[in-house]
Specification:
The protein is mainly beta. It is 8% helix and 46% strand. The protein has one helix and nine strands. The strands form three sheets. Strands 1-2-3-6 form a four-stranded antiparallel beta sheet, with no helix packed on it. A three-stranded antiparallel beta sheet has the order 7-8-9, with no helix packed on it. A hairpin with a 5-residue loop joins strand 2 and strand 3.
Length: 87
């Protein structure tokens, strides 16, 4: 983490590196979701945070794929290693 114009920077990505992203801004506190979809996609409950769309830059997306998990939500994952990345 490094400060940029008093904003925080976070780098993340999938296990194999085919998807990488950077967040420059604030993240909300973690939430722990035990819903059926989160348990099915992870095999357990999910710990997640949130950033503003405008604060996220995808820097590598060769493996990024999207699955419409409901009428209102999509889940982003890596097609190569299976990492669950976005909701």
């Amino acid at each position: 983490m490094a400060a940029t114009d008093s904003k925080r920077e976070f780098d993340g990505g999938c296990l194999c590196g085919a998807v990488r992203f950077r967040v420059v801004g604030e993240l909300r506190d973690l939430v722990y979701c035990h819903c059926e979809q989160c348990r099915r996609t992870s095999g357990h409950f999910v710990a997640a945070t949130r950033a503003e769309d405008s604060d996220i830059t995808v820097t590598a997306d060769t493996g990024l794929r999207w699955f419409a998990s409901s009428k209102t939500a999509k889940r982003g994952f890596c097609e190569h290693c299976g990492s669950s990345l976005f909701w």
